[in-house]
């Protein structure tokens, strides 16, 4: 019975978010900063991938991270060890980062570091295969991870994430099949 109202609210929410994402994107383009939105189910290896990326590409490439987690700064602290700017955002009960939250992260980043000097910004989204795919944050590309331990049915069960992704990385391929 409430379906049309729910649909209208959902569309307005996404519309408002898209306006915020476009605003973020304009800042990123102005600064010459490429932004990737890293998404996956919990534990697929987003932070592990970032650890390896920072170890191998920083400081030749100037990288910063916006780290989204519901409650802790555990992932942010893992990445701070690499000496790069890491802005932690706690989403509270929200299961994804939205454009407004990332705008706050960008402002913090710009206050602490010269944004023109950062080449690559990686946004690690909250571990979730559903919500992050619906909310753009201004990224230039969406990177999805799928670990072999999650099961091959996941792209069928969570199609939006896998349809929206510009790049898909299969992780944990070192683990033997069960
Ligand atoms: N064997 C194996 N383990 C991995 C690999 N990538 C990540 N892991 C392990 O998987 C666990 C979860 O990795 P994280 O990088 O924390 O995963 P995440 O996607 O950041 O998790 P959330 O932020 O909680 O969503 C850790 O114990 C990692 O060491 C991989 O390629 N192979
Ligand atoms: Mg993580």
UniProtKB/TrEMBL annotation:
One of its GO terms (molecular function) is GTP binding. Residues 41-175 form the CobW/HypB/UreG nucleotide-binding domain. One of its GO terms (biological process) is protein maturation. This is Hydrogenase nickel incorporation protein HypB. It comes from Halomicronema hongdechloris C2206. SUPFAM superfamilies: P-loop containing nucleoside triphosphate hydrolases. InterPro entries: CobW/HypB/UreG_nucleotide-bd, Hyd_mat_HypB, P-loop_NTPase. It holds the Pfam family cobW. Keywords: GTP-binding, Hydrolase, Metal-binding, Nickel, Nucleotide-binding, Zinc. It comes from the Bacteria.
């Amino acid at each position: 019975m409430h379906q049309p109202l729910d649909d209208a609210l959902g569309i307005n929410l996404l519309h408002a978010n898209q306006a915020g994402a476009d605003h973020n994107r304009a800042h990123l383009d102005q600064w010459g900063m490429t932004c990737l939105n890293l998404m996956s189910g919990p534990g697929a290896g987003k932070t592990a991938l970032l650890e390896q990326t920072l170890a191998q590409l920083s400081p030749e490439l100037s990288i910063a991270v916006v780290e989204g987690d519901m409650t802790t700064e555990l992932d942010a602290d893992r990445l701070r060890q690499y000496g790069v700017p890491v802005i932690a955002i706690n989403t509270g009960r929200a299961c994804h980062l939205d454009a407004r939250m990332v705008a706050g992260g960008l402002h913090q980043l710009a206050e602490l570091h010269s944004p023109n000097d950062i080449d690559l910004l990686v946004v690690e989204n909250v571990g979730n295969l559903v919500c992050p795919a619906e909310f753009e944050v201004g990224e230039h590309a969406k990177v999805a991870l799928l670990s072999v331990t999650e099961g091959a049915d996941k792209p069928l069960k969570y199609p939006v994430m896998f349809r929206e992704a510009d790049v898909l990385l299969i992780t944990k391929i070192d683990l033997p099949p069960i």
